[in-house]
Amino acid sequence: MVKLDFSKSADGLIPAIAQDYETGEVLMLAYINEASWQKTLETGNATYWTRSRQKLWMKGESSGNVQKIKEILVDCDDDTVVFKIEQLGGAACHTGHRTCFYRKLEGDELTVQGEPVFDPKDVY
Q1: Residue 123 lies in a domain
Q2: What pLDDT score does 123 carry?
Q3: How far apart are CA 68 and CA 16, in angstroms?
Q4: pTM of the predicted model, to two decimals?
Q5: Alpha-carbon span 52 to 31, nearest angstrom
Q6: Domain total of the chain
Q7: CB–CB of 103/113 below 8 Å?
Q8: CATH code for the domain in which residue 83 is found
Q9: Mean pLDDT in runs of 10 for the chain (124 residues)?
């Protein structure tokens, strides 16, 4: 069994990068703890620890935009993972965009790239 090192942070969380397994597009960054790691391995669905709500959070539990794990990469220090996922529903971001990284720095301003896949008011 793979043992990740959750001891490096005071809160026991490590970064988890969600990346589209076909395109390589980075969709989001979240955090996992031991419980969310185990849940992810058990279910095959990306499960994170939500810092704002202080609980386990299976991505898509309210929006339906579930992340199916296709592959997991673990860094050399065992304290960061990349979830290569299939993004169901087309959007990873709670704003309705496909990726949380939908804004690009141009000069001293952020410009929005692409259109939202859904309206968050209709989902949340």
Answers
A1: no
A2: 86
A3: 14
A4: 0.93
A5: 11
A6: 1
A7: yes
A8: 3.10.20.810
A9: 90 98 98 98 97 94 94 97 96 96 98 95 88
